[in-house]
Design a protein that fits this description.
Largest sheet: none
Distance between the termini: 44 Å
Structural class: mainly alpha
Order of helices and strands: HHHHHHHHHHH
Number of strands: 0
Helix content: 55-70%
């Protein structure tokens, strides 16, 4: 793919305000590697993408990378679209209301009573799963595209230094420190932040 504005790694780097040189230094890779990733000559390995996610404050990059490099991911994770918080909130509300008003949980319990889905139950089961997948899709869009950090991201200087601290780890945005510490405290939500469950 030619070098253009569609490259997910370049988009994330530029949105974070890093030059290729500053990104290479912060990611502890060569400038040639950055250029190769940004022209699709090479695919970055997972550990480099993980560092990009942290350094560029770009949780959406993890999702985009998986979708571009793993053909099976779309079977597990629905296709996500960047949406505004109000749009995602309305979608979640509408789908959850549809789920509850349609008595989907009661129907699912009736289907599950004998421990299997028979041929007559399959269409209803598929419809319930479709609604649940749309709720999951909107929930992931909320987490990945609507986080407060993404919405209020401050423009960073060209040399890649940031004026803000990250969870009190450093007074400057030293991505090598952040990556090391976040790897020790890895969270499955891809943002590096703990999300409490109600």
């Amino acid at each position: 793919m030619p070098e253009d504005y569609s490259n997910i790694y370049k988009i994330a780097r530029r949105a974070a305000g890093y030059t290729q040189e500053a990104a290479a230094e912060q990611l502890n890779i060569s400038i040639e590697s950055v250029r190769a990733y940004e022209t699709y000559q090479r695919t970055p390995p997972a550990d480099v993408v993980e560092r990009m996610v942290v350094c560029f404050d770009a949780p959406q990059l993890a999702y985009q990378h998986l979708h571009e490099t793993n053909a099976l991911i779309s079977r597990v994770i629905p296709q996500l679209e960047p949406r505004s918080i109000p749009e995602v909130a309305v979608r979640i509300y509408n789908r959850m209301r549809s789920f509850s008003q349609g008595a989907c949980l009661e129907h699912l319990m009736a289907i599950a009573e004998d421990g299997r889905v028979d041929d007559t139950e399959q269409p209803e089961f598929d419809a319930i799963v479709k609604i649940l997948r749309s709720i999951i899709q909107s929930s992931l869009e909320l987490e990945i595209f609507c986080s407060p950090d993404s919405a209020t991201k401050k423009e960073r200087p060209e040399d890649g230094a940031s004026r803000r601290s990250v969870q009190g780890l450093a007074s400057e945005n030293d991505c090598k420190t952040i990556v090391t510490q976040s790897a020790q405290n890895a969270s499955p939500n891809l943002t590096g932040k703990e999300v409490p469950f109600p």
